[in-house]
Amino acid sequence: MKSEKISEAVVRRLPIYLRYLNELNKREVATVSSHELGQKLDLNPAQIRKDLAYFGDFGRKGIGYDVSYLIEKIRQILNLDQQINAVLVGAGNLGMALSNYNFYLKENMKIVAVFDSKPVKVGTHINTLTVQPMEELSETIQANKIRIGIITVPDFEAQNVADMLISSGIEAILNFAPTILKAPSHIRIHAADFTTDLLSLAYYLEDGKDEIIDDGQVK
Amino acid sequence: MKSEKISEAVVRRLPIYLRYLNELNKREVATVSSHELGQKLDLNPAQIRKDLAYFGDFGRKGIGYDVSYLIEKIRQILNLDQQINAVLVGAGNLGMALSNYNFYLKENMKIVAVFDSKPVKVGTHINTLTVQPMEELSETIQANKIRIGIITVPDFEAQNVADMLISSGIEAILNFAPTILKAPSHIRIHAADFTTDLLSLAYYLEDGKDEIIDDGQVK
DNA sequence: TAGATTGTTAATCGATTAACAATC
DNA sequence: TAGATTGTTAATCGATTAACAATC
Questions:
Q1: Interatomic distance A78 CA / C19 C1' (Å)
Q2: Hey, are the CB atoms on B98 and A194 less than 8 Å from each other?
Q3: What is the pLDDT of residues B35-87, one digit of tens each?
């Protein structure tokens, strides 16, 4: 498998499948069909079957998918059958919120270190972690096999932090800063800037411009 | 304009254009070409021209786009030529982080109220806002013409909060909870769940499974 | 004028969905 | 067996990119 190139859209749906499968598993549901998954997740059943079939024949005709087995397989596909360590840079409000979220993640992904360039932040505690100074970034990343970087610094610092992460050997970055990062093509970067999300929502609001009719009455 | 249906992908790029145009404007750059925009934003120039052309002829052949004029036009398209009020539900770490971000948003979008169901949160302050109890949600939304809801409650409460927001007249929702919300089709919902983003990143990590060669040597 | 750059059409590429044989 | 559901091919749909005439 993985011989065909898998599109990003497919990969992004895998964690969504995984999340609902975990829920089914907790409820001790043994089997699920693409139809049921589709209903719950607002996706087309054919799309779900096709997504999964890229990676193997996980289902059984006439039956559906075994929940536990599919969870195992998707974890393998996502490399979550091993623990993946992440580092967070920027111990502001958002950084602290994400660090705390750590313990909500049921999967094998963990923020194992937090950094900040501001001396007043260094040494403060976020749960079990102590905020470290930027000088220790590279060493910590290498010593702890940290592979993912999460950027929650202000926009003007983001590229600089990204460069440091990359030169320290990080493989992928989740960027919360509202800026487009430049990086070599082998580094995977996902933009997670919610200001973009929020502003684009405004497009879908009813205009209001049309609602006032010539005579001043509201329709 | 707006006669053709505009795809979500196009709309999502508009705030990204806007952000960079604002930066150019601050630097007093008067004019920009699709080529330069494309370079900065990692987008194809033809795509940028096409995106903008859906809404009007904003550029000038041989010259490019007038920065101030294009800012004005994109704001109009996104309904950001008027103030858009938003409400945030869930005053946990993430909610507080977002509320504080408020003042980073240069555009006409403002979180004007924060709610939480936990009595211990109610009455606490986040910047200039006081956390209110859920009982006041509907009234506050209507009294303040709040049109967008931001959900930062735990997953098991999210659907319930969405229902309340919708029945209070909200038009669009930004959902940070890791769950698929069900809503009538005229309500616009964007998922902003970063756990999905983070887990999907793991797919792109080098497997490591291949890196240990038969003789035990690492390649 | 010559060079630059738009707006737009046509070509390409990719993703989603429908349909159905295989089979549990 | 009859009903259900997969895996997969073909059809459809939509989005991106290339190319270029128009024109500043």
A1: 31
A2: yes
A3: 999 999 999 999 999 999 999 999 999 999 999 999 999 999 999 999 999 99
Residue B212 has pLDDT above 60, yes or no: no
- The answer to whether the beta carbon of residue A60 comes closer than 7 angstroms to any atom of strand D is yes
Tens-place pLDDT, residues A89-119: 999 999 999 988 765 567 899 999 999 999 9
pLDDT value of residue A209: 47
- Region B121-143: what's the mean pLDDT? 96
Task: Locate the chain B residue with the closest alpha carbon to A87.
Answer: B198
Band the pLDDT of B106: cuts 50, 70, 90.
confident
3-state SS of chain A? CCCCCCCHHHHHHHHHHHHHHHHHHHCCCCEECHHHHHHHHCCCHHHHHHHHHCCCCCEECCCEEEHHHHHHHHHHHCCCCCCEEEEEECCCHHHHHHHHHHHHCCCCEEEEEEEECCCCCCCCEECCEEEEEHHHHHHHHHHCCEEEEEECCCHHHHHHHHHHHHHCCCCEEEECCCCCCCCCCCCEEEECCHHHHHHHHHCCCCCCCCCECCCCCEC
| CB-CB neighbors (< 8 A) of A203 in chain B | 11, 14, 77-79
Asked if the C-beta of A120 comes within 8 angstroms of chain B's C-beta atoms, the answer is no
Q: Which domains does chain B have, with CATH numbers?
A: 8-77 (1.10.10.10), 84-201 (3.40.50.720)
Mean pLDDT of B156-181: 97
Q: Is B44 helix (H, G, I), strand (E, B) or coil?
A: coil
Q: Hey, is the C-beta of B200 within 8 angstroms of any chain A C-beta?
A: yes
For residues A207 and A194, what is the distance between their CA atoms, to the nearest angstrom?
A: 22
User: Nearest CA to CA, how far is B186 from chain A (Å)?
Assistant: 9
| A188-191 and A172-175 beta bridge pairing | parallel
Residue lying closest to nucleotide C7, CA to C1': B53
A39 pLDDT more than 90: yes
Residues on chain A touching B100 (C-beta within 8 angstroms): 93
Chain-chain contact of B93 with A97 (C-beta, under 8 angstroms): yes
Does the pLDDT value for residue A35 go beyond 90? yes
Closest CA to A86 of A113, A125, A124, A116: A113
- State how far Cα B35 lies from the chain centre: 25
